[in-house]
Amino acid sequence: MAALAEEQTEVAVKLEPEGPPTLLPPQAGDGAGEGSGGTTNNGPNGGGGNVAASSSTGGDGGTPKLTVAVSTAAPAGAVPVPAAAPEAGAPHDRQTLLAVLQFLRQSNLREAEEALRREARLLEEAVAGSGASGEVDSVGAEVASALLSRVTASAPGPAAPDPPGTGASGVTAVSGSASGPAAPGKVGSVAVEDQPDVSAVLSAYSQQGDPTMYEEYYSGLKHFIECSLDCHRAELSQLFYPLFVHMYLELVYNQHENEAKSFFEKFHGDQECYYQDDLRVLSSLTKKEHMKGNETMLDFRTSKFVLRISRDSYQLLKRHLQEKQNNQIWNIVQEHLYIDIFDGMPRSKQQIDAMVGSLAGEAKREANKSKVFFGLLKEPEIEVPLDDEDEEGENEEGKPKKKKPKKDSIGSKSKKQDPNAPPQNRIPLPELKDSDKLDKIMNMKETTKRVRLGPDCLPSICFYTFLNAYQGLTAVDVTDDSSLIAGGFADSTVRVWSVTPKKLRSVKQASDLSLIDKESDDVLERIMDEKTASELKILYGHSGPVYGASFSPDRNYLLSSSEDGTVRLWSLQTFTCLVGYKGHNYPVWDTQFSPYGYYFVSGGHDRVARLWATDHYQPLRIFAGHLADVNCTRFHPNSNYVATGSADRTVRLWDVLNGNCVRIFTGHKGPIHSLTFSPNGRFLATGATDGRVLLWDIGHGLMVGELKGHTDTVCSLRFSRDGEILASGSMDNTVRLWDAIKAFEDLETDDFTTATGHINLPENSQELLLGTYMTKSTPVVHLHFTRRNLVLAAGAYSPQ
Length: 800
Prior knowledge:
The chain is 29% helix and 23% strand. The protein is α+β, with helices and mostly antiparallel strands. The strands form 10 sheets. Strands 9-10-11-12 form a 4-stranded antiparallel β-sheet, with no helix packed on it. Strands 13-14-15-16 form a 4-stranded antiparallel β-sheet, with no helix packed on it.
């Protein structure tokens, strides 16, 4: 069975619409994945949309040069719409344009060159007629610095339309499309490599104004926003936090320590409460030297902070900054913020609060536009002989009647392909073994006895309490058939329990196995050594706390991930370690098997998630783009996508086929610790340290619900087998059951909502809450619905 493309063992290649192919970088937050899944900036959902027209990367030891960068977010082939352009006129402007065109041609950025040429209404002959290429090169060299200063200086000036033939309008036309027609046109910038050189990253803070004026600038903007109309105030207030951070870092970088301290003390209290943890880190950066190794600072610098603002509010802000000649703030807006402008009514405070809170602002609307195949794959048809065998051993009358409806429904499901499902062979999946087919038949029989849940029929909850674990229980998993429980512990062991009367047995020694008749029907029983039978097996091998555990669907294997940076695969036949997967350099917080087995995903402190196959010792895909630890990972039910939740307070959905990030969900106000997909694959539920459970529509890329009630971190989430109920377990020692049917009905997913991201979340948590179940003093670490819809919960008792 072939795994995913072998050539991409280390990294996944993504072909961009413009420019050469680029590699997904192995580290997140390193400038490559400013807003998307670790792709370069020129993708349709890359961060900030900067195509850095730089020929300096790779030839000179990686020192970035000051070059002309054209900002564009238009997809390949689209013509950017001209924005407000600076006044132009002198022949010097024509030379400038020719220099830029020449530069784009040398850098092989053909599409950008064509777009610029079309905007300026220039023909090929015009360039040819302007002299030899050497002349243009020299013009380019002379003009580059002038161009940077002129365009940046003129950008805040009053906008006037240009005559058709002038060059400046072409330059600004392309740059203006960075975030809609009226985005701040940024032509001059430092081209930073994919792996940012720290000094290059920091050098952006060296263009600075009078340090004593910073407080005045910020106070002036604050006063302007607070005095603006209510409808604009909520939107413009989003600027406070990113501007505060960048102005503070600029003061620190330029060694104005006293001014920086005064600025921080005066304004840090104005920021939203969910930024308090970030501000605590920021307050420790008081000297230029502190900034060099600080990850938070580099994240903030390399990933543009995304703000979603209506056109009216944006024009209001732009007019104010131009009138006040407030270049300092305007430069930060251009340099470090990505303003995603939409047409229509400004959003209300409640709508904005629902979506903000992540380390890099909101997700761009473009980031959630790509098509996602969220439907389920066709169920394989189980052969009839297996059914017959099964029926013989059972009560003759009842079984066929009970099983046939299920069989028919599976048959009908396979005839009617889900329109939203991926092609069956989109990614290679393992063939079903005979034992898998038998398991599916058992599953069908269990399904006929499944309890239909709802508000009037809540499930029973069976709680497994780990005693004497001394805060040491760090991970739990339960097999799909609910026969085994595994626990990962802080003492670096993995312990496996049988929760059925059937004890755990190891395979016999090789010398004993040779004596067994391999043709006998009960050979699988005979190979087991009765002397080894016990309820508990302990697996030794890790050298640090075990933070993640996951059983394979066929119950033959167990994965565990640890603080020691490895993921281990254990055999549940011999209870020994088969493989240690080494790819992460830091603790691995979570790992999970695909619903079809064979593939698994891991995520850790190195900010990336990795996709593996059990028979490859190198990862098949590296999902890079998060700006902080990847805390939890989860496969979509069709195995074509992986969701990751991170300490950067975002959830990302990755395409297993090509490694692309296809969804970015923002809205949590704390690190995300739990994820679960609904059984039909349409929805995702996420839980975080903020105690909220958020519900997402994957197809439309929208938040569709918010469940409030928990008072501490939500550690575990699980939908019932038919998706009627969502169970959430928390560090507040409670399990809560929510009405999922009601939460997802009558969703507003019309074109306007999808286009603008205006979501109106009803305050209906109390109506959706079906029950709260307290433990005495046991945080709920794991939840599981059995095949008959009984809830199993697990946690370690922590004495008060």
